[in-house]
Design brief:
305 residues, alpha/beta, 5-stranded mixed sheet, 4-stranded parallel sheet, 8 helices, 9 strands, elongated
């Protein structure tokens, strides 16, 4: 539970006041998960002689969990830490072990890579290049929405608590997702290593893509077939990489947007149900028809190529 205070001697966690950022908001959310009950004060500066001995000071004060020093710590890839990253680096493993998370080291590294690092980079002024025709919101810009707007009557403390609640839910969902991926990694690794075909066929959906891209840099596997949670089976293209979404094998252009009888007629595959107009996924009524749809797409691509 998060409690805000105006008495610095009561505070177990101390950060800056004023405009909130994703950095200290996510740091606060993580500290609440770590310690369950925290008392937070947001201040313009810190008198270290007037605070509790066990208080954690972050994103302010130029101490261990502040990142505004000239010699701020960096990851091996050059991305500097911010307060969220520094706190995760210090206490992340402890939190995972206390919650009895299997393969906690792998979970720790993935969580840093998938969530913490991007918040750290953004807060340190390292922004990704985004080529899009529409405005793209980042986690940082979403947290920024919680700052009281111009000429509003919003209470800064209430808005901070709302932002921390959202950040806490994101952390928990991200961790849950990563824990699932780590559990699945061993299983999907064995399947991929024993797959000698150009089509990866799964009898259940397992998070496969990141592991596949890691284990198959030569692009031997072109398409994946797996059960759909809407019923039937999906046939999915494999991209060349996480950053490069070019398909190893796209579906034929004349399948784009077709459904049911139209797709069956065009593909000559009984049981074909749908092909996305962007040619990255198709569906079929059952496993056999999905495999035949994948093989047909592969044959057409090879003949064109």
């Amino acid at each position: 539970m998060l409690t805000l205070t105006t008495n610095i001697k009561e505070a177990s966690c101390i950060t800056h006041c004023g405009k909130m950022h994703a950095d200290e908001v996510f740091a606060t959310a993580f500290l609440e998960l770590l310690k369950e009950n925290i008392v937070v004060i947001r201040v313009p500066s810190v008198d270290f002689n007037s605070i509790r001995e066990d208080a954690i000071v972050y994103d302010i004060g130029l101490k261990e969990f502040d990142h505004h020093q000239p010699d701020n710590k960096k990851r091996p890839n050059g991305i500097p830490y911010c307060s969220f990253g520094l706190l995760w680096k210090e206490f992340g493993r402890k939190y995972l072990k206390e919650n009895k998370i299997d393969d906690y080291e792998d979970v720790f590294e993935r969580f840093d890579k998938d969530l913490v690092e991007q918040i750290d980079a953004d807060d340190n002024g390292i922004f990704p290049k985004i080529e899009a025709q529409c405005k793209v919101k980042t986690l940082s810009s979403i947290i920024d929405l919680f700052n009281p707007g111009y000429d509003s009557n919003e209470d800064e403390s209430k808005q901070f608590k709302k932002a921390v609640l959202l950040a806490k839910e994101i952390i928990e969902e991200e961790l849950s997702n990563i824990i699932g991926k780590v559990k699945a990694k061993k299983k999907i690794t064995n399947i991929i290593k024993n797959n000698n075909e150009e089509i990866l066929v799964l009898d259940e959906y397992i998070p496969y893509l990141e592991t596949l891209l890691e284990l198959d840099p030569e692009e031997k596997i072109k398409l994946a077939v797996f059960p759909s949670n809407r019923g039937g089976y999906n046939v999915k293209t494999i991209p060349k990489g996480i950053a490069d979404q070019t398909y190893r094998v796209p579906f034929p252009k004349n399948w784009a947007g077709l459904t049911d009888e139209d797709l069956e007629k065009e593909s000559k595959i009984k049981g074909a149900v749908f092909c996305h107009n962007k040619l990255f996924i198709a569906t079929a009524k059952d496993k056999d028809s999905a495999i035949r749809l994948a093989k047909k797409a592969l044959d057409i691509y090879k003949n064109i190529d």
